[in-house]
């Protein structure tokens, strides 16, 4: 059995594990990250994909969370510029909340954001054309901005950076046992090759919805957590234009309808409380709820057969009573152990948006534990690919690269820039002699597949179709099957 040792073993390579690994490696700690599945294989690829303050959390008085999130919106907009885009949301005055309440909420949202690179909220002028599409037509609406992000790639890029800083990243490696051993935890990690031991001074449990199961490995019963499933569906475009909608529902929930690629909309989310994380998966009731919201708003009903992709994620919400809608999105962090001995940190809850701050707070506690005085530097360090690739510079970068590689398929270079930012030029140089390679459909070409297998820990066809890219959405079932067969034959990487 192989044996490794480290300062920190991070259990879970979702966004929180990735953020902690990056911050820790940047502060000089020796880090191992393991995940029993793919990077961002769970909640961190199943979000609504917004870097946002969370307008609806104002209603619950969570001003601190909204303010922190809006500050992080600025930071992530800068350090992950290639993965985000500004997104305008239209909030029609459909009567569930009075117009004055919406206006007041948006003014507060703007104030809490402070100095921001996004436009302020506004009341849309009468006759704004999109409103006429609603059923029944609505006379007035407000609009505000947040950022849209590729959640899985944000997680991946964060870990690529952590690796560049020295972290060892081990996807498909499950923590299956822990035992105290002097001033360390003896951790047993199982991957396809067998079992290995990792001796860690401190374990950080960021296993998301499976956090309690990881606690149980050391015989600890975790405090209660509420598991609330959210399902999204992707349907063919409901209308032209790049605006997203925030549709208020009679049950006071809100449903987002967000442009997804060139020809689809992402619609979500539901809130279904489940007793176990292993029951995760879209239900008929959730599909019907989302389709009913679309029918109610746009009068046209995509049928269940029109659903191109659906995914579910689970929020482990901290805090007991009330409805899932009103439960806190804050996080809870606990730390056991004494300086000079072994430590164990557990984290529950949180948001994609606040992962960097969560990591900073975790590391501030861990540096004290390790007797170090290293400070957080993650807000000032761009993620790999973010150089020269923010929303304003992206078309320029794509044009320059398209001119340099004029023989490559039209649109592909553009899509690559959206996923890999400034790393696209290295990807294309490595692919140069073979060109784009085989065309799998949906915008997926062999050169990118091989890049992801070599540099991004992609290990299965699904890793490519749904997380390294979202090309699976644009492929037919036959194309997806053909790609999976090709992958199984070739085992690229
Ligand atoms: C429906 C929905 C929509 C959301 N939308 C947004 C949004 O728009 N904006 C926003 O800011 N936030 C959003 N969130 C919240 C955000 O997605 C989560 O807070 C975040 O993804 C949680 O990341 P995590 O790393 O804690 O957990 P996860 O991503 O679930 O990662 C935990 C990892 O632990 C691994 N693991 C489990 N057991 C073991 C083990 N024994 N050994 C090794 N690994 C293990 C799992 O495989 C998993 O990969 C949303 C959440 C949901 C559910």
Give the fraction of residues assigned to helices.
Answer: 25-40%
Q: How many β strands by DSSP?
A: 20
CATH architecture of the largest domain: 3-Layer(bba) Sandwich
Percent range for β-strand residues? 25-35%
Count of the domains: 3
Count of separate DSSP helical elements = 13
CATH homologous superfamily heading of the largest domain: FAD/NAD(P)-binding domain
Provide the residue-averaged pLDDT.
92
For the biggest sheet, the summary is:
10 strands, mixed
Shape from CA axes? Answer: globular
CATH class of the largest domain: Alpha Beta
* Poorly predicted parts: none
Q: Ligands in the structure?
A: flavin-adenine dinucleotide
The assigned structural class equals alpha+beta
Report the CATH topology name of the largest domain.
Answer: FAD/NAD(P)-binding domain
Radius of gyration: 23 Å
Describe this entry's structure for a reader:
The protein has 493 residues and is an alpha+beta fold. It folds into 3 domains: 2-43 and 153-225 and 328-380, FAD/NAD(P)-binding domain (3-Layer(bba) Sandwich), CATH 3.50.50; 85-145 and 226-326, D-Amino Acid Oxidase, Chain A, domain 2, CATH 3.30.9; 394-490, no CATH class. 31% of the residues lie in helices and 26% in strands. It is built from 13 helices and 20 strands. The strands form 3 sheets. Strands 3, 4, 5, 6, 11, 12, 13, 14, 15 and 16 form a 10-stranded mixed β-sheet that branches. Helix 1 (15-26) runs parallel beside helix 4, helix 1 crosses helix 7 (355-369) and helix 8 (394-404) crosses helix 9. It is globular and about 70 Å long. The mean pLDDT is 92.
């Amino acid at each position: 059995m192989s044996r490794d040792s480290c300062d920190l073993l991070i259990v879970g390579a979702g966004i929180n594990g990735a953020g902690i690994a990056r911050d820790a490696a940047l502060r000089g700690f020796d880090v191992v990250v393991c995940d029993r599945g793919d990077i961002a294989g769970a909640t961190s690829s199943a979000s609504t994909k917004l870097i946002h303050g969370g307008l609806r959390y104002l209603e619950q008085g969570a001003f601190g969370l909204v303010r922190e999130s809006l500050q992080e919106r600025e930071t992530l907009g800068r350090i992950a510029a290639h993965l985000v885009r500004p997104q305008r949301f239209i909030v029609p005055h459909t009567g569930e909340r009075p117009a004055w309440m919406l206006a007041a909420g948006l003014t507060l949202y703007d104030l809490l954001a402070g100095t921001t690179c996004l436009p302020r909220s506004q009341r849309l002028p009468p006759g704004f054309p999109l409103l006429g599409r609603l059923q029944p037509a609505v006379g007035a609406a407000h609009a505000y901005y947040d950022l849209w992000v590729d959640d899985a790639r944000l997680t991946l890029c964060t870990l690529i950076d952590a690796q560049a800083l020295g972290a060892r990243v081990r996807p498909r490696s499950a923590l299956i046992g822990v035992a105290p051993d002097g001033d360390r935890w003896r951790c047993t990690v199982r991957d396809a090759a067998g079992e290995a031991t990792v001796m860690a001074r401190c374990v950080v449990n960021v296993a998301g919805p499976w956090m309690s199961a990881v606690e149980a490995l050391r015989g600890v019963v975790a405090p209660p957590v509420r598991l609330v499933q959210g399902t999204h569906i992707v349907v063919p475009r409901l209308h032209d234009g790049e605006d997203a909608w925030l549709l208020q529902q009679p049950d006071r929930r809100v449903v987002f309808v967000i442009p997804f690629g060139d020809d689809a909309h992402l619609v979500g989310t539901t809130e279904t409380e489940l007793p176990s994380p292993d029951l995760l998966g879209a239900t008929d009731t959730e599909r019907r709820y989302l389709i009913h919201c679309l029918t109610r708003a746009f009068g046209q009903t995509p049928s269940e057969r029109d659903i191109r992709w659906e995914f579910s994620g689970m929020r482990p919400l901290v805090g007991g009573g009330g409805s899932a809608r009103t439960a806190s999105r804050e996080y809870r962090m606990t730390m056991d152990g004494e300086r000079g001995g072994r430590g164990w940190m557990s984290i529950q809850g949180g948001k994609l948006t606040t992962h960097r701050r969560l990591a900073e707070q975790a590391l501030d506690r861990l540096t004290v534990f390790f007797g170090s005085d290293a400070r957080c530097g993650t807000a000032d360090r761009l993620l790999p690919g973010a150089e020269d690739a923010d929303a304003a510079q992206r078309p320029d970068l794509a044009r320059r690269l398209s001119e340099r590689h004029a023989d490559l398929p039209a649109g592909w270079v553009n899509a690559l820039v959206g996923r890999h930012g400034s790393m696209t030029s290295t990807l294309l140089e490595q692919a140069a002699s073979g060109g784009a390679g085989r065309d799998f459909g949906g915008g997926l070409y062999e050169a990118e597949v091989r890049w992801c297998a070599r540099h991004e820990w992609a290990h299965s066809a699904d890793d490519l179709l749904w997380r390294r890219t979202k090309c699976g959405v644009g492929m037919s079932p036959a194309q997806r099957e053909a790609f999976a067969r090709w992958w199984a034959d070739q085992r690229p990487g």
